[in-house]
Design goal:
Elements: H1 3-8, H2 15-27, H3 32-35, H4 47-61, H5 68-77, H6 83-95, H7 103-131, H8 133-136, H9 140-157, H10 166-180, E1 190-191, H11 196-202, E2 205-206, E3 209-215, H12 221-234, E4 239-243, H13 248-262, H14 281-295, E5 299-302, H15 309-323, E6 328-332, H16 348-365, E7 369-375, H17 398-402, E8 403-410, H18 412-415, E9 424-432, E10 439-445, E11 450-452
Parallel strand pairs: 3-7, 3-8, 4-5, 4-6, 6-7
Antiparallel strand pairs: 1-2, 8-9, 9-10, 10-11
Helix pairs in contact: 2-4, 2-6, 2-7, 4-5, 5-6, 7-9, 12-13, 13-14
Length: 458
């Protein structure tokens, strides 16, 4: 390795992201409280940016609004003797502002660049001390201890998540509970699955968490997830559906059938996948009406079969920029997510552990529900009772560890065509972190892709 070339490199930084974040803070003072806990003045690479950020922080502490004029005055009061230059810089930051979306991500990138610069600095000092150890009278153990301590401290500082005293958390919890119990204006802490019994018992799919739905092939996992996605989108939620097994065209055809049959049409799902099968005027009318309804939903589809977590995050971020929120992310299905480059060709269990952990983190980062579908182990087929259990989530115990809720789907009719429970889908709450586990039955007609909350009385 050419050490001279490395020494000549500029340290990691991004002038553009620093300017973008400062512009966001100057234009939208409401985001400032989100940024201050993440960044310190020294995290900025450009000295002028450090001064501007310090001025914004000082104004915030004084409970004054930070804008071009107040920040300029604050800098002048701190001894900056180039007022014209600083006003020009501030005006440029404001003029280039587009949106506040992604501000937290920008702050985290700036912090990450700072951390990398610190790693380089520690490494350089460690190399210098190792070369001069004989002269300085240092042994390898002392060097390791000294810089090991620095690296541990750097790791502790590398996240904005700080250890908190209970007294600092309690007031916020009071507010959250109050918002969750304020009648029609209640703030959601979960997203409904869409069926009365299981929602009333479990409270729905918890926000900031991973929910997984497992079942053997033929149980209706994709139809179930699509139904959840469509009903939530109909309520005005922003939904992203990652269809790793089907194309967007296939998903929309299934969605058209779902919406049309919800409106009491009689449109078999399979008819939309065959040639010369749509003949009745009523079918065309149902397709047209359902298609028009779909265009008004905030539903996003991605059918790239080679998705990784980083690609999923990029797509979520794109929707966040456009819509400023994401409520529900569906992964169909989890085992089809590709490992990142550094984890390829490793043990599959380790790959899946990393993927599930990353999905849970995505839910937390974007304050949404991540609903992941999972193919269950073939061991189910060898049992007399083929209803899924937690241990059937194959390849990884991380399903149990990372998911706040685990649901299993089961259709008796799939195994016994003569059963009296025709078109019945059992939803088994195998794990619900905030409620009891139950078994609930709903109506599911796979021929039409229709789900109904209440079973016939007979």
């Amino acid at each position: 390795m050419n050490t001279t070339a490395i020494a000549d490199r500029l340290p990691p930084h991004s002038v553009e992201i620093e300017e973008t974040l400062l512009g966001q803070m100057l234009n939208d003072h409401q985001i400032i409280p989100l940024i201050l806990p993440i960044l310190e003045t020294g995290h900025f690479y450009i000295s002028q940016h450090r001064m501007i950020y310090e001025a914004i922080s000082a104004l915030c502490k004084k409970q004054k609004e930070a804008n071009v004029f107040t920040v300029a005055e604050e800098l002048i009061s701190q001894g900056n003797n180039k007022p014209a230059e600083i006003r020009m810089k501030l005006s440029g930051l404001v003029e280039n502002f587009i949106t506040s979306a992604g501000c937290v991500d920008h702050a985290q990138i700036i912090r990450e660049k700072y951390q990398l610069r610190q790693v380089i600095a520690i490494g350089n000092r460690m190399i210098s001390d190792a070369y001069s150890s004989t002269i300085a009278g240092l042994c390898s153990e002392e060097i390791i201890d000294t810089y090991g301590t620095e690296l541990v401290k750097l790791r502790q500082d590398s996240t904005s998540e700080r250890i908190q005293h209970a007294a600092a958390i309690v007031p916020g919890i009071y507010e959250e509970i109050e918002k969750a119990n304020s009648g029609d204006d209640a703030q959601n802490t979960a997203i409904p699955i869409g069926f009365t019994e299981i929602d009333s018992t479990t409270g729905g799919m918890p926000l900031n968490a991973l929910t997984v739905v497992g079942g053997r092939g033929g149980m209706g996992k994709s139809s179930f997830a699509l139904n959840v996605a469509l009903r939530r989108a109909e309520e005005g939620m922003t939904v992203i559906y990652f269809a790793l097994e089907m194309s967007n065209s296939q998903m929309i055809r299934k969605a058209i059938a779902n919406v049309a049959n919800k409106q009491m049409a009689q449109l078999p799902v399979g008819r939309l996948f065959r040639t010369n099968s749509i003949v009745a005027d009523s079918d065309w009318a149902a397709i047209s009406s359902a298609g028009e309804e779909l265009t008004f939903l905030d539903l996003w589809l991605q059918d790239n079969p080679s998705m990784t977590i980083s690609k999923i995050r990029a797509d979520i971020q794109e929707v966040m920029v456009r819509r400023k929120k994401v409520d529900l992310v569906v992964i169909d299905y989890v085992q089809l997510i590709q490992p990142e480059r550094g984890l390829k060709n490793q043990n599959r269990v380790l790959e899946l552990d990393s993927i599930l952990r990353s999905l849970r983190i995505l839910a937390k980062d974007y304050n949404c529900v991540v609903l992941g579908l999972a193919q269950l182990s073939r061991a189910v087929e060898g049992r007399a009772d083929k209803r899924p259990t937690q241990s059937d989530f194959r390849e990884s115990g991380a399903f149990e560890q990372e998911a706040a809720m685990m649901l299993g789907l089961y259709r008796e009719e799939y195994y016994d065509p003569e059963t009296s429970e025709k078109n019945v889908l059992e939803i088994l709450a195998l794990k619900s972190r905030f409620s009891e586990n139950i078994r609930s039955k709903i109506l599911f007609d796979p021929h039409y892709g229709v789900f109904r909350d209440n079973l016939p009385q007979n």
